[in-house]
Amino acid sequence: MKFAAIADWAEQKQFKIEFMCEQLGVSTSGYYAWRGRGESDRDRADRRLTRLITGLYEGLRGNPGVRRIHAELVAVGHRISRKRVWRLMRAAGLQGRHPKPWKRTTVPGEQPVPAPDLIGRDFSATGPDRKWCGDISYVKTWDGWAYLATVIDLYSRRVVGWAVADHMRTELVTDALTMALTHRRPTGGVIFHSDRGSQGEFNRWTQHHRV
């Protein structure tokens, strides 16, 4: 496969053969011997797949990795192992992006205000719609991060409101809270407990609120 790659680049006159052999850890004599005997069926197949993989890689967003390229190949009818895709991508210098699996969701406000803890660290409730708890989570998608805000009733542990967006601005939380209020229509005072991030503080409110 290294010899096939060298032959490709040599035809395009990108690098000198001696330089490519040295960088790929093969001998120049070995390359010329390989050229003399011609390519095997496997080598030709690898070359065709490498061109296809390169085209897919350049056409897809987000620097796709082995799993996504493999899925695309299978979708167009190529029965090929992930290990072979990995080998061909590595030989072609194609590397997928590996985003950090962790995202910071609690962002302090510019002027944080001390907030009283109205629930006293007691995450239980004696009845529905008396204590709600809000939080933000995130999911990595092919198009970027998707952020999910939820409102949970601490009595039933059910999600009573939620919102999804591509940002973590305050309206992400207020949209989830609005959904909870619209669907539940609580008759008494509800304590909404959130973290102390700028989103949950609603820019000027305290950490916990009666709604």
Description:
Helices cover 39% and strands 16% of the residues. It is α+β, with helices and mostly antiparallel strands and 211 residues long. It has a five-stranded mixed β-sheet. α1 (2-11) packs antiparallel against α2 and α5 packs across α6 (82-91). The longest helix is centred in the N-terminal third of the chain and has 19 residues, at 41-59. The model is unreliable at 198-209 (pLDDT under 50).
Describe, in short, the structure shown.
Involved in the transposition of the insertion sequence. By secondary structure, the protein is of the alpha+beta class.
Write the layout of secondary structure elements.
Blueprint: H1 2-11, H2 17-24, H3 28-37, H4 41-59, H5 66-75, H6 82-91, E1 131-141, E2 144-153, E3 159-165, H7 170-184, E4 191-193, E5 208-210
Helix pairs in contact: 1-2, 5-6
